[in-house]
Amino acid sequence: MSFEVIPAVDMRNGKCVQLVQGVPGSEMISLDDPVAVAKDWVSQGAKTLHLIDLDGAIDGKRKNAPIIERIVKECKPLGMEIQVGGGIRSFENAAELLDLGVDRVILSTAAINNPQLVKELADAFGSEHINVALDSKDGKISIEGWKKQSEFTAVEMGIKFEELGAGSILFTNIDNEGLLQGVNTIPTEELVSSVTIPVIASGGVTKLEDLIALKRTGASAVVVGSALYTGKFTLPEAINIISSDV
């Protein structure tokens, strides 16, 4: 994929929300209609949508699955690529989404707990459809909606999951996530230099210059949430500055 800005549509209890560092109850944004939000991003020029079921990620129950299905059915015909994560804990969960028309499923907790699942899905559906989310806090990977810390680093797990067949990695720096304090590019650079598959960056984007900084790490894309929802910049502005940076 060429470098692009991907708007996030994070869902909790049927609403589109933005949490501070993934903490339930810390919503800085809460919008009633995630389908309308997704379609608005499409109208503003998005090429890819990033859909996350936070109930699934935090509690393991994919409560927002019907909303995600609606977004896929209404936005795929408009030419959108769609990646979905949050609560995908089994082969069956992933297969259901891919059969629905989702382009990439994002595995996090399930991949860390059962790395072979990545290989099984890549063998069955193709590596390009399998993304592994590596969410880093204090240098270690967090799982279960960022409630638990693992013993592994992003670089260690990035290399491992590439070997198992993952087609891309979503790397979130939790230390910066949702704080609107800017990005720390060093962990992203370290991961990008350690693997050959695309790395999608996430976490901390606050201003347009952050997008340029992440592009220059060699990342393939960046997921943006809070900065767009709080009006730090618009999606068209983001697309324009990325396009003009050569």
TrEMBL record:
<dbReference type="InterPro" id="IPR013785">
    <property type="entry name" value="Aldolase_TIM"/>
</dbReference>
<dbReference type="InterPro" id="IPR044524">
    <property type="entry name" value="Isoase_HisA-like"/>
</dbReference>
<protein>
    <recommendedName>
        <fullName>1-(5-phosphoribosyl)-5-[(5-phosphoribosylamino)methylideneamino] imidazole-4-carboxamide isomerase</fullName>
        <ecNumber>5.3.1.16</ecNumber>
    </recommendedName>
</protein>
<keyword id="KW-0368">Histidine biosynthesis</keyword>
<keyword id="KW-0028">Amino-acid biosynthesis</keyword>
<comment type="similarity">
    <text>Belongs to the HisA/HisF family.</text>
</comment>
<dbReference type="InterPro" id="IPR011060">
    <property type="entry name" value="RibuloseP-bd_barrel"/>
</dbReference>
<dbReference type="GO" id="GO:0000162">
    <property type="term" value="P:L-tryptophan biosynthetic process"/>
</dbReference>
<dbReference type="InterPro" id="IPR006062">
    <property type="entry name" value="His_biosynth"/>
</dbReference>
<feature type="active site" description="Proton donor">
    <location>
        <position position="135"/>
    </location>
</feature>
<feature type="active site" description="Proton acceptor">
    <location>
        <position position="10"/>
    </location>
</feature>
<dbReference type="GO" id="GO:0000105">
    <property type="term" value="P:L-histidine biosynthetic process"/>
</dbReference>
<dbReference type="InterPro" id="IPR006063">
    <property type="entry name" value="HisA_bact_arch"/>
</dbReference>
<keyword id="KW-0413">Isomerase</keyword>
<comment type="pathway">
    <text>Amino-acid biosynthesis; L-histidine biosynthesis; L-histidine from 5-phospho-alpha-D-ribose 1-diphosphate: step 4/9.</text>
</comment>
<keyword id="KW-0963">Cytoplasm</keyword>
<dbReference type="GO" id="GO:0005737">
    <property type="term" value="C:cytoplasm"/>
</dbReference>
<dbReference type="InterPro" id="IPR023016">
    <property type="entry name" value="HisA/PriA"/>
</dbReference>
<dbReference type="Pfam" id="PF00977">
    <property type="entry name" value="His_biosynth"/>
</dbReference>
<dbReference type="GO" id="GO:0003949">
    <property type="term" value="F:1-(5-phosphoribosyl)-5-[(5-phosphoribosylamino)methylideneamino]imidazole-4-carboxamide isomerase activity"/>
</dbReference>
